[in-house]
Design goal:
The protein is α/β, with parallel strands linked by helices. The chain has one domain: 3-Layer(aba) Sandwich (Rossmann fold), CATH 3.40.50. It is 33% helix and 33% strand. It has 6 helices and 13 strands. Strands 1, 4, 5, 6, 7, 8, 9, 10 and 11 form a 9-stranded mixed sheet that branches. A two-stranded antiparallel sheet has the order 2-3. The longest helix is centred in the N-terminal third of the chain and has 19 residues. The structure holds 1-O-pyrophosphono-5-O-phosphono-alpha-D-ribofuranose and uracil (URA). Uracil binds next to helix 6.
C-alpha cells in the first residue's frame, strides 16, 4: 500500500531540497524536518496505554504517563537514510536505531548489502528509512534482509519515489506500507529520480 503524504509544509521543504543551490546544512535540516512531519501519518495508528507512572499537572491533577504500546526500531539504509533519523528520533525518543548498509552498483543499479545490525527488541515495528526510492532495489533488498532475520511488522518511509520503485516494493513485499512525501515522474538513464533532488547521500554528507 502506498500513502503519499501531501502537506503544504512538506512541499515548501521539498522545494528547498530540490534546489541545486541548497547547501548541505540546509538540506540536512529540511530532510529532518520533513521526516518529523511524516511521523504524524506513518504512526497515526499506533496504540498507547496509561503506564503506572504518574505525574502532577500545574493545576494539581494527577495523571498517568501515556506511553506507546509498540516498540519501534528506525532502520536507515546507509548512508543516506541516516539523514532522516534525527527528525524521527525527535518525535519518538524511545525508538531504537538499527542500520542496514546497502549501496547501488552504479552500472547495474543492483543493491549490494554490506552491513546489517538491529537492536534486540521483541516483536518491534520496524521503520526502514531512505530518502530515495528509485528502482526500488535497495528498499526491496533491505526489507528482505529484515524478513530473513524474522522481522514481520515492517514499514518503509522515503521522501521521493517513482512509480517503478513503488511497484517493485509492492510486488516483492505487498505487506509493507510505503510512505512518500512525493511521487515523482520517472528515472533518467542513470537511475536518478526526475525531477528528484540529485544524489541524496552526497548532498547530506557533502561528498561531491
Ligand atoms: C541511494 C539511495 C537509496 C538508493 C535508491 O543510495 O539513498 O538507498 O540509492 O536507489 P534504488 O531504489 O535504485 O535502489 P546509494 O546507493 O547512492 O548509496 P548512499 O546512500 O551510500 O549514497
Ligand atoms: N539515489 C539517489 O540518491 N538519488 C536518486 O535520484 C536515485 C537514487
Amino acid at each position: 500500500m502506498l500513502t503519499v503524504i501531501k502537506h503544504p509544509l512538506i512541499d515548501v521543504k521539498l522545494s528547498i531540497m530540490r534546489d541545486e543551490k541548497t547547501h548541505s546544512k540546509e538540506f540536512r535540516e529540511s530532510i529532518n524536518e520533513i521526516a518529523s512531519f511524516m511521523c504524524f501519518e506513518v504512526f497515526k495508528d499506533l496504540k498507547t496505554h496509561e503506564a503506572a507512572e504518574t505525574y502532577r499537572t500545574p493545576t494539581g491533577y494527577t495523571l498517568h504517563r501515556v506511553k506507546l504500546d509498540d516498540k519501534i526500531i528506525i532502520v536507515p539504509i546507509l548512508r543516506a537514510g541516516i539523514g532522516l533519523c534525527d527528525g524521527i528520533k525527535n518525535m519518538i525518543p524511545t525508538a531504537r536505531i538499527g542500520h542496514i548498509g546497502m549501496y547501488r552498483n552504479e552500472e547495474t543499479l543492483e543493491p549490494v548489502e554490506y552491513y546489517f545490525k538491529l537492536p534486540e527488541v521483541k516483536n518491534p515495528l520496524v521503520l526502514i528509512v531512505d530518502p530515495m526510492l528509485a528502482t526500488g532495489g535497495s528498499a526491496v533488498a533491505a526489507i528482505t534482509a529484515c524478513k530473513k532475520r524474522g522481522y514481520t511488522n515492517i514499514r518503509l518511509m522515503c521522501l521521493v519515489g517513482v512509480p517503478q520503485g513503488v511497484e517493485a516494493v509492492e510486488k516483492a513485499h505487498p505487506d509493507v506500507h510505503i510512505y512518500l512525501a512525493s511521487l515523482d515522474e520517472k528515472l533518467n538513464e542513470k537511475g536518478y529520480i526526475i525531477p528528484g533532488l540529485g544524489d541524496a547521500g552526497d548532498r547530506i554528507f557533502g561528498t561531491k
